[in-house]
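My convention is simple: the sequence line spells out the residues, with the fold written below as integer tokens. I include a record here:
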Amino acid sequence: MPTLTVNYLDEIRTVEFTAGKVIGEVILTSGFPLEQPCAGRGTCGKCKVLAEGALSYLDEIERKFLLKAEREANVRLACRARIIGDAQVTLTPVVVYSNKAFTQSNEFKTNDHPLGLAIDLGSTTVAAFIVSLKTGDVYAGSAVLNQQTIFGADVITRLSVAESEPVKLSALAQASIYQAIAALKLSKRVLARVERVHIVGNTAMHHLLMQYPVHTLVMLPFQPHDRSAIYDAGSFFSSLFPLQAKVSLAPLIDGFVGSDTTACLAHFRFDRPRGPVLAIDLGTNGEVMATNGHDILVASTAAGPAFEGVNISCGTRAVDGAIVDAQLDDGHLRLTTIGNRPPVGLTGSGLLSVVNMLKCAGVVDVSGRLIDDNHLIPVEEGEDGIAQVKFSLTVALTQMDIRELQKAKGAIRVATDIVLERLGIKPEDLRCVYLTGAFGSQLNTDAILGVGLIPNVDRARIKLSPNGAGLGAAMFLRDESLRIGEELAARTAHVELDLEPEFNLRFVESMGLE
């Protein structure tokens, strides 16, 4: 049988296969991660790999997504190229960030404090944090792509697969957690001091990880199989965590609102608010949380992965060259990229900032349409006939990208408006608005307000907290904080947006960039 040699970071694996399979299918049998936001349908062009050997000829879809330089460098789409005989592929690392310091000290590597691991199992990204159980300090964090995305960014698709293959979806989640922990680069000596592990995630991620029945989540009224806290799940995970560690999971709230929201509520101290507060977790499955000082309401909304740079033609994670901000300075376009490198793509924050900048320049109207009568920033027609604005030879924003952002924005905004209305809160009365999740710390508050992602509030009241769920999970490593989380979950009411009168109409109205 022919073999495929797969190179990922510093590791090489060889897999035997039946000739004629697509590269992506064979890569997945190697156990290495592969990013496929469209679930291998050939519609996103994101599963690029460096491939050599006995391969099929480029097809029409590959020619559409691959630049001439990429084709000459033997780049192929893993969902399209078929392997005829022996071949070799090199995969791009899917680490979002690795061993990112949260403090200025590396003393946890040398002191004797007992340690804990906090895990945020997100739909797109899985994050891990190393925490002192003595002081509560979060020392460092890392994040990797959730390997479940091989089935696409859509969580409902994963739930459907899990009805027949629950072990496979759980294994992919556990593999992602393992990679996130590995990205922390902890020594065996440090791992030996890990005494507690706490995992949070939305209801779907929680159920997929624990192999719970998911049929109640794929049909109305979308209820969890079990929302209870789990206090000692170590035996379920076998060798995933240090053997001495006690593994726990916080309680879910209701519907798709899971323990990641419980963690955010704890982190933002909804147990003792000083007046009306709003918090929004921006991600593939967005959560809106609000309190009037007494009652707490939450809602889950399917924002889609645009905030994480997925389903965007030139979307990217936070890598060198990723656009994170855009300004119009005296008629000149000024892009801010990570590492001040030439632009390679748009992050979620970059997408929001670019669209807001184009709106301010009159290139995009409030309906989201690109207007081709601006001499400052030209709008041109792409190869597929779709209007676009180019920022470099390889990076552009298309009309379809703007529509993806509008859908995500509309989902968050309508959920926010409904929750605030239910609590009788006027935007001007909000003491604080917390934004957490996919954007990280690069989010531009002018862009947030400019496109109408949130209601109009004083900029000084907007607080960015990139890792609300993860930091809440870090709190739950301590029993007294976990009890606070349990109390918050019990007293929080869930707003079912699907049952809201005229929800669809309000969603469409909320897609406007105002």
